[in-house]
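EI: anyone free to look at a 253-residue chain?
SC: sure, send it
EI:
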Amino acid sequence: MASEVSDEERLRLRERPPGRLVMRQIWRQLAFLHWRVEPAAIAALLPPELEVDTFDGAAYVGAVPFTIPLTRTPRLGLPMAPAFHEINARTYVHRGGRDPGVWFFSLDATSRLAVAGARLGYGLPYFAAEIALAELDGWVDYKSRRRRGAAQFRARYRPAGPVAPAAPGSLEFFLAERYLLYASSARGLRTARVHHAPYPLQAGAAEDVAQTLTEAAGLPPGACAGPPPLVHYAERVDVQIFGPRRNELLSAP
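SC: here you go
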């Protein structure tokens, strides 16, 4: 079974990192939809340097749809790209009990610039997609279809509780408060950091959820079928994004 990561190690990554700030973004109308999945099914899809991160022995796979109304330069705040929508399919990993972060199975976006830049600069598995977002009676109606291949996603979601940032040590913190990402390419393993205030997290509700993102990533058919048992929502967060680094531990053994 994958080893657990200490609360201190998870909290450490909320601190603003050193390094080169590449851009600032605003993320809005985020849904965190999570399914519980057998750790072994996830481990088979990871590079050898990474281990499955677990909470009380359970592993999770998430789909996170959201929209990015603004991408800007780090210093002057000038616009860098038009507004676009994005959805990621992800799980959670660490390296020997250190550096807990996100492993992305895929990231689908409507911005071809974002897709090309993230693939080239970060080695992330971005794909061009057609995504529609609409709001009606407090619900967000979200539909995504990858331009190449059969990967699709649809859901209606909304906030369903008061704003309450996730408490350290909680499952909500484990799922949402992630500030480190991993990517793997021909050049090896890379990491990158983001920094932002804790999510203004709320309990969420979701309806009409159907997706093939996780099956397209190689997870067993049915592993993430049906309604997600865990749904959270965040209205907005302002994010600082830092440049990628190559395969270096961020904390001492």
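EI: The first strand starts at residue 21 and ends at 37.
SC: 👍
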